[in-house]
Each structure stands twice: as structure tokens, then as C-alpha cells.
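Running this now, will post back.
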Amino acid sequence: MRKIIVTLVIILIATGVAIAMARIFEFTLPGRKLSSLLHIYGGLFFLVLFPLYAWDHVNAHSDWLRRVTGITISGGLQLLSAAVLILSGVLILIYWEHTWNWARQAHHWLTYLLGAALALHYLSPKNLPPR
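Update: finished.
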């Protein structure tokens, strides 16, 4: 399931940034509707799969939670940013143009935090340090 989650994150980041940049710089995005649909449906899959994966992953690696390391910090950042991304994404999906500006901004900027935390989590050493 990890590969599915990482693939979804990459798709969501790519489509989200493309949509946001097209809106910010006011240019027509080729395949705009397709990008939007891919982002929405990818987000809905993420909404379902990420909590299941996160629960299973945290339970399987609970020994890491006793120490503050790069892996626990990056994992916590991923969990927090993904939760806020999910909540803000649902708000944007429901209220679209009438969504609060802070929800849109949080949704945009937390995308970069999630990508960076995912990369840091992947690159962090996985051997548990001695007590």
C-alpha cells in the first residue's frame, strides 16, 4: 500500500501545482478539466487510503515513537500535513469558490511540506538507535 500512497501523493502534488500555477499566472492549462478530475478523484482515494495506511504504519513501527529522530519528525510532519490537506481539500471540494482563503492557502503550502517530509522520511536512516 506504500507504493500506492506515494504514487497518489506524487499525482496530487503534480496536478495540484499545475492547477494552482495556471490559476496564479492566469494561463490556460492544457487538459485543465482532466487535471482537476484527476486531482479530485486522487484526493478522494487518498482520503480513504491514507488514514488506513497511517494507522497500520504507526502500529507496525511504534518502537520509533519513543525517540525523537529524523524519521519520527518527518513522519509526524507527514501525518499532520496530510490530515490538514485532507480537511482543507474536503472544504475546497464542498464550497469551491466560497472556501475560506486560509483553507486554500493551507492546502497549497502544505503540499510542499508533505512532499519535503516524504523525501526526508525516505532518506532518513532506518536503523533504530540504541537507548
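The chain has a mean pLDDT of 88. More later if anyone needs it.
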